[in-house]
TrEMBL record:
Transmembrane segments: none annotated. Residues 198-270 are annotated as: Disordered. This is LysR substrate-binding domain-containing protein. It comes from Streptomyces sanyensis. Residues 225-237 have a biased composition (Low complexity). Residues 24-196 form the LysR substrate-binding domain.
C-alpha cells in the first residue's frame, strides 16, 4: 500500500465569531484527539447560523439567540456589555454607567450588532456603520459612542479609546451550537470538552464487565471476603482460649497466683 492509498481523517471544523477566543478548547482537543485535526473557521456574527445550516462547519461558537428549530445550542457564558468612548470622554470619570447616562449621546448601531438595543429616542439619525470595526472608527473620530460586548471592545482596542461597563442594556451570550440533524461523535466530543468533562469521563456509558465482576466479587462473598471471615474466626478462638487457658482466672495461672504470696515468697503454714 502506498502513502497515497491512506486517506487522511476528516477534520472537525469549528466556526467562531469575532471576540470569541477558542484557544483553550482547541488545545484540549489536540491533546485528546491528535489524530483528528481541528480547523478553525472565522465567520461574521451575522453569517454564523447560515454557515452551520449549510454545512460549512460541524459546530460553532456564536452569539445568542439562535434558531432553535434548526440548531442545538449550549450556552457557555454571558459577556459584560460596555460603552466604547474616546479617552477624554466625560464617561471615563466613573467606573460604570447606566443606560440613562447615554441619553445625550449618539449611540452607533453597526449592521453586525447582536445586542439588539435601540438608541435612546431624541437623537439624530445616522446611517448605520456596516461593521463593529467601522463603528469603532467613528467613535475615534468623535461621531458617537458604541455599546458592544466587552470582547469586541478588546478586539478593536485603540490607544485613543477606552470603555466602561454599562448596566440596563442587553448582554451578549456565547453558545456552542450545531445542526440538530448532525450531532456526530466528534460534536459530542467537543461538547464534553467545553463542559469540562475529563478524559476518563464515561458520559453515561455502561461500566466494563470486568470492573463489574471485580466489584461483585469484593462485596458479595468472593475475592477477599473469605479471608476476612477466617481472620474473624481465628480472633474469636484466640479470645476464647485466653479466657479458659493459662491466662484465665480459673486455670493454672490462677492457681499459681493463689499459691504464692507477695514478692513470690511461699506462705508459711500456721
Amino acid at each position: 500500500m502506498t502513502g497515497s492509498d491512506v486517506s487522511s481523517p476528516s477534520p472537525f471544523r469549528l466556526a467562531y465569531v469575532p471576540g470569541v477566543v477558542p484557544a483553550k478548547w482547541v488545545r484540549i482537543w489536540n491533546e485528546r484527539r491528535p489524530g483528528v485535526p481541528l480547523v478553525l473557521v472565522p465567520t461574521a456574527a451575522a453569517d454564523a447560523e447560515e454557515l452551520l445550516r449549510a454545512g460549512g462547519a460541524d459546530a460553532g461558537l456564536l452569539r445568542l439567540p439562535v434558531d432553535r428549530d434548526v440548531l442545538s445550542a449550549i450556552p457557555l457564558y454571558t459577556e459584560t456589555t460596555v460603552v466604547i468612548v474616546p479617552k477624554d470622554h466625560v464617561a471615563t470619570a466613573v467606573a460604570e454607567l447606566a443606560a440613562e447616562d447615554l441619553s445625550d449621546e449618539l449611540v452607533l448601531h453597526p449592521l453586525d450588532d447582536t445586542l439588539g438595543w435601540e438608541q435612546p429616542p431624541g437623537r439624530p439619525a445616522i446611517e448605520r456603520p456596516a461593521t463593529t470595526g467601522d463603528a469603532v472608527q467613528l467613535v475615534a473620530a468623535g461621531v458617537g459612542v458604541l455599546v458592544a460586548p466587552q470582547s469586541l471592545a478588546r478586539l478593536h482596542h485603540r490607544r485613543d479609546l477606552t470603555y466602561r461597563p454599562v448596566s440596563g442594556v442587553p448582554q451578549s451570550g456565547v453558545a456552542l451550537s450545531w445542526p440538530q440533524e448532525a450531532t456526530t461523535d466528534l460534536v459530542e466530543e467537543f461538547i464534553g470538552i467545553v463542559r469540562g468533562r475529563t478524559v476518563n469521563s464515561t458520559r453515561g456509558r455502561p461500566r466494563p464487565e470486568a470492573d463489574t465482576a471485580r466489584d461483585t466479587d469484593g462485596r458479595r462473598g468472593g475475592g477477599s471476603a473469605p479471608a476476612r471471615t477466617g481472620r474473624t474466626a481465628a480472633g474469636r478462638g484466640s479470645r476464647a482460649g485466653g479466657r479458659g487457658g493459662s491466662g484465665g482466672r480459673g486455670g493454672a495461672g490462677g492457681a499459681g497466683r493463689r499459691g504464692t504470696g507477695r514478692g513470690g515468697r511461699p506462705r508459711r503454714r500456721s
